[in-house]
Amino acid sequence: MTHEARGPVLAVLVAGIGDLVLGRDALRALRAGLPGREMHLVVNAQALPLARVMALADGLHGFPIRELRSGPGALGRALGAVAGLRRLGPALAVNLYPPASRAGALRMGLLLRATGAPGRVGVAALGLGPWLTRGVAPAELAGLHAARVMERVALAAGGVPAGPAGPVDLALAGGCRHDALLGGGGPLVGLNPGTDQPGKRWAPGAFAAVADALAREFGARAVILGGPGEEAAGRAVAGAMTSRAAVLTGRMTLAELGHVLTRLDLLVTTDSGPMHMAAAAGVPLVAVFRGSDPARFGPLGVPGRCRTLACAPGGDVSARAVIAASRDILLAGRAE
Length: 336
Hints:
Layout lengths: L2 H4 L2 E5 L3 H6 L1 H10 L5 E6 L3 H7 L4 E5 L8 H16 L4 E4 L6 H13 L4 E5 L10 E3 L9 H11 L22 H4 L5 E5 L11 H15 L2 E4 L6 H10 L4 E3 L6 H9 L3 E5 L2 H8 L4 E5 L4 H4 L8 E5 L8 H17 L1
Helix pairs in contact: 3-7, 9-10, 9-14
């Protein structure tokens, strides 16, 4: 038996929160194909609370990938994190998410090598290949959904398909401090206007038009979601509405966001981390895709309860189309 066959497995997934959710099948494949192995997961530091809830590995480690650009303090934290990973003595390090740039590939190559793992697996793209002991050719991944891409990487590392993952329970056992704002009659509709890429944003007035239409027809109550830094987007949506909304933008931890999502009858959202969290939790949703491809990054939710609406380059998704899709989902929910 080789050292690689005996030692811990280190899965690296330091992309966004949504990518962590989409990596569930890949992580389960690693578990299934490498039984009895201690498995550790390295995630973006911001995603660590979600990884804890999802219970994806024996050990979880946050890595300050986004903070590395902020100065020497972040570099010191990163070096400390690398030292901690090296002390684990990993035999196999698997970078699940393909690099998006040559700079990113270089950083990932350095990270994988610095862990001391003799086996290193990932997508051999943008210069990452020489840092790997087993590389997946980008041509093998053309046209695949991001979740299937990561699963292919896991299979190359010795994993076996484990079948689709079940729903994730994001509800907090003791509830959360915002529950009182969510009570009342009528369906609860979440509006998530935030996203980490400006090109994916949908107009605040369009979100407002959807919320107002659903309030008129269904008596729906709107709650506006979003993380730190997205407060302006939340205020813009609330300011454009004629009906009332609870504005929780920037007022929730990631764990609280997950809990609030489970309370919703419908989420209307951009392509974002909360979209993938809601889909994984089985929350009905309508997702507006602007500047991204739902065939590659669409939500993997319950069939019939996830609708994606995309536009051609330079075009837009109409509020009317989103209202119609939302109406269909709410009516279907009434019939259940």
